[in-house]
Recover the amino acids of this structure.
């Protein structure tokens, strides 16, 4: 089941395309006004803000790996999402685990490029981020492109990690929409 969700997001990655018009700093600096609410996941052990109207659309609760995917079902937009995963790793070092994620990103579809990776103090706990964007040469009217920001942070417990994946299609409102999602994940609190 967990591989199924990874395949789903890989398929999304392969189907959408164009290069980044905005940087990570652009996205986190954008602070649009919007209504939100606090979502608490007792099963996974975290709290996050979500835009009003967003709901839990998909979940996986397996030993060693839990995941919840959120979107706004009434919009029909399945590419603007927040995904929160909690999992156990063989390492307890954040830097080592992030290297594994960077290696995975190097195997992305040729339609995507790594824009930036770095440590950040954007989340409450020490974390790293990776910004991936679809390349310009793959952009069409039907597939305007997609940006993805993945955050990785370590829980207070041993080798447990939280991964947040925020995706947003390109377009005239991308900066505002991604800014809204960034403000939501900024409030992440882990148990």
């Amino acid at each position: 089941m967990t591989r199924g969700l990874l395949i789903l997001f890989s398929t999304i990655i392969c189907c959408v395309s164009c290069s980044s018009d905005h940087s990570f700093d652009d996205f986190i600096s954008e602070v649009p006004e919007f209504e939100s609410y606090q979502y608490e996941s007792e099963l996974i052990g975290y709290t996050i803000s979500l835009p009003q109207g967003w709901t839990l659309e998909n979940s996986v609760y397996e030993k060693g790996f839990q995941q919840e995917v959120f979107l706004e079902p009434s919009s029909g937009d399945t590419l603007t999402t927040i995904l929160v995963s909690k999992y156990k790793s063989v390492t307890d070092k954040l830097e080592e685990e992030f290297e594994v994620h960077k290696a995975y990103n190097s195997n992305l579809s040729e339609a995507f490029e790594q824009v930036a990776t770095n440590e950040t103090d954007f989340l409450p706990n020490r974390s790293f981020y990776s910004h991936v964007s679809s390349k310009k040469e793959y952009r069409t009217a039907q597939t305007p492109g997609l940006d993805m920001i993945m955050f990785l942070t370590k829980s207070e417990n041993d080798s447990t990690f939280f991964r947040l994946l925020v995706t947003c299609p390109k377009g005239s409102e991308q900066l505002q929409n991604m800014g809204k999602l960034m403000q939501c994940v900024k409030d992440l609190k882990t148990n």
Notes: Helices lie at 2-15, 24-29, 94-105, 174-185. Residues 1-19 have pLDDT under 50 and may be disordered.
